[in-house]
Specification:
Elements: E1 2-7, H1 12-21, E2 27-33, E3 68-71, H2 76-83, E4 92-95, E5 110-111, H3 114-122, E6 127-129, H4 133-147, E7 155-160, H5 168-185, E8 193-197, E9 206-214, H6 219-230, E10 236-238, E11 254-262, E12 265-273, H7 280-290
Parallel strand pairs: 1-2, 1-3, 3-4, 4-6, 5-6, 7-8, 10-11
Antiparallel strand pairs: 7-9, 9-12, 11-12
Helix pairs in contact: 1-7, 3-7, 4-5
Length: about 300
C-alpha cells in the first residue's frame, strides 16, 4: 500500500483529493495536516466524508511513515517538505498549491501534465507539480502543433471556468505557464499568449478553453497529429463535435474538438473538469505514474449527473 500524507488538508482541492484516495485500492491515507485544526475529524471540514473517513487532523506529518505527500498550502509543515527534500530521498512530493515559480528545473520538480511528461514521471521522478487547470487545457490543445513546429505569432486563448480558478492575479501565472511549456517544446516559438475570459455561464466544475490559430493543414492531417499524440493516453480523447461540459464533470477526462471553418484557421476546443484536471485528479494521476500503477487506478469513470 502507498502511505499518503496531505499538508493543507482543509482546502477544497484537498477534500476532492481525499474523496478519490479513500477509494483508491493501493492507498492508505495516514496523515492529514491543517493549521489550527489538530484533533478535529477531517469530516468536520469536508462534511461529505461523514461516515466514509474517520481520520483526524494530525499535529504534524512524519515523513518516515509516508511514501508520498501531497502539498496544497503554504505553512511551516508544507514548506519543510518543499525545502528539505534531501532529508527524505525516497519520499515522493506532489505539489498541488500552484507554486508561483515556473523554474521547475531549478526546483527539481517535474511538470506534472502526463500528456506531455509521462516518461519523466515514470522514470524515477520524486517531485512533481500539478499544472493549473486553464494552462493544462490550453497546453493539451496546443502541444501536438508545437511538437511539429506549427505555432506562429501570438496565440489567443479564450477560456471559461469558475472565478476562483483564474483570478486576475493568477492570470499572468497561467500565461507564463503556457509559454514555459510551449517554449520548451518548440524553441522557435516567440509569440505571446493572450488570455481572454469567455462571456459564458459555467458550472462550478466546468472548464472550456478555445484556441484559434493560423493553420493551413487539412483538417484530416491536423486530426492525425493530435491522434498520434494522444492515442495511447488514458484520459484525453478526440471527439467529432464539441460536447457540453457536464459530459466530463466529476471525471479525469479531457475532450478535444478540432474545427476548420476557414482553410487557414484552426479552432481547438478543450473541455474538462477544473477540480480534477489541474487539481485532485491530476495529483492522483501523477501519483499512479510515480509508483508504477496503471494510470486509471482510482480514476475510473463514475456516475455523476445522469
Amino acid at each position: 500500500m502507498i502511505r499518503v500524507g496531505i499538508a493543507g488538508a482543509d482546502t477544497a482541492m484537498a477534500g476532492e483529493l481525499i474523496r478519490i484516495l479513500i477509494n483508491h485500492p493501493d492507498v492508505e491515507l495516514v496523515s492529514a495536516f491543517a493549521p489550527g485544526k489538530v484533533g478535529r475529524k477531517v469530516s468536520s471540514v469536508h462534511h461529505g466524508l461523514a461516515g466514509e473517513c474517520d481520520l483526524e487532523f494530525s499535529p504534524d506529518i512524519n515523513p518516515k511513515n509516508l511514501d508520498v505527500i501531497f502539498i496544497d498550502a503554504h505553512s511551516d509543515v508544507a514548506d519543510r517538505f518543499r525545502m528539505n527534500t534531501d532529508r527524505w530521498p525516497d519520499l515522493r512530493i506532489i505539489d498541488m498549491s500552484h507554486c508561483p515559480s515556473l523554474d521547475f528545473d531549478a526546483l527539481d520538480m517535474a511538470y506534472g501534465l502526463p500528456e506531455i511528461n509521462r516518461k519523466q514521471l515514470v522514470r524515477g521522478c520524486r517531485r512533481a507539480v500539478v499544472p493549473r487547470s486553464v494552462a493544462a487545457a490550453a497546453i493539451i490543445g496546443l502541444y501536438p502543433l508545437a511538437r511539429h513546429l506549427l505555432l506562429k505569432g501570438d496565440i489567443i486563448v479564450e477560456y471559461v471556468c469558475p472565478s476562483d480558478i483564474v483570478t486576475e492575479e493568477k492570470m499572468n501565472m497561467v500565461r507564463q505557464e503556457i509559454l514555459y511549456v510551449l517554449g520548451k517544446t518548440q524553441n522557435s516559438f516567440s509569440g505571446d499568449i493572450r488570455l481572454h475570459r469567455l462571456d459564458e455561464e459555467i458550472s462550478e466544475r466546468g472548464l472550456k478553453v478555445v484556441v484559434e490559430i493560423p493553420c493551413t493543414l487539412d483538417i484530416t492531417e491536423v486530426f492525425k497529429l493530435f491522434d498520434d499524440c494522444y492515442d495511447d493516453h488514458n484520459f484525453t480523447f478526440m471527439v467529432a463535435s464539441a460536447m457540453p461540459g457536464y459530459e466530463v464533470e466529476g471525471t479525469q477526462k479531457t475532450l478535444v474538438t478540432l474545427q476548420k471553418q476557414k482553410s487557414d484557421r484552426l479552432t481547438v476546443t478543450v473541455i474538462a473538469d477544473c477540480r480534477m484536471r489541474g487539481g485532485a485528479g491530476d495529483a492522483v494521476h501523477i501519483m499512479n505514474l510515480l509508483f508504477g500503477l496503471h494510470e486509471r487506478t482510482g480514476l475510473y469513470l463514475k456516475a455523476h449527473k445522469f
